[in-house]
């Protein structure tokens, strides 16, 4: 999702909390509950979907309200690591910033800092931190967090979290590069 996000304080007295919403085109700021998409709905969708792997990417202000703190399998040196994380269910989210942050864009980037770094992380394979030819959701999230913080002078801190306690990972496999007879590189999709 790339667009606007809004927050609203809900509850009473000591039980007040911030509720985040993704704003569709026809969303009404005066009636968020009925016209916008509650970020909590992403969690419900993730828990009820039949897909094995899901990655939500939220490029919207206050998107960090959608993330929860949960740990997955982190030992990348474990035997058959890629097979293990590919086999298990994955529900991951990467947001453009923390719960209270506004998204930063610049004309020179032609995108937000978040989208700029998603593109460089995947297209240029910069997110492949361990250089194994595979980019996991966690690697992409770590890369985006570091590069967006640099691009925004630490005013925007992306969140890379899980929506459930499942330990799987979304996996991106970059195109295979093959050489033609005349030594010009071309890419062939895997």
Q: What is the rounded distance between the termini?
A: 26 Å
Strand order of the largest sheet: 1-2-3
Largest sheet: 3 strands, antiparallel
Structural class: alpha+beta
Shape: globular
Low-confidence stretches: 69-74
The averaged pLDDT comes out at 83
What share of residues are in beta strands? 25-35%
User: What is the ordering of alpha helices and beta strands?
Assistant: EEHEHEHEEEHEHEEEE
Q: Any idea what the radius of gyration is? A: 18 Å
Q: How many H/I helical runs?
A: 5
Helical residue percent band: 10-25%
Total strands: 12
SSE map:
Blueprint (H helix, E strand, L loop, with lengths): L3 E7 L6 E7 L8 H4 L1 E2 H10 L4 E6 L22 H7 L2 E6 L9 E2 L4 E2 H11 L11 E2 H15 L7 E4 L8 E2 L3 E4 L5 E4 L2
Parallel strand pairs: 4-5
Antiparallel strand pairs: 1-2, 2-3, 5-9, 6-7, 8-10, 11-12
Helix pairs in contact: 4-5
Please explain how this structure is put together:
With 190 residues, the protein is α+β, with helices and mostly antiparallel strands. It is 25% helix and 25% strand. The protein is built from five helices and twelve strands. The strands form five sheets. Strands 1-2-3 form a three-stranded antiparallel β-sheet. Strands 4-5-9 form a three-stranded mixed β-sheet, with helices on both faces. Strands 6-7 form a two-stranded antiparallel ribbon. Helix 4 packs across helix 5. The longest helix has 15 residues. The chain is globular and about 60 Å long. 32% of the residues are buried.
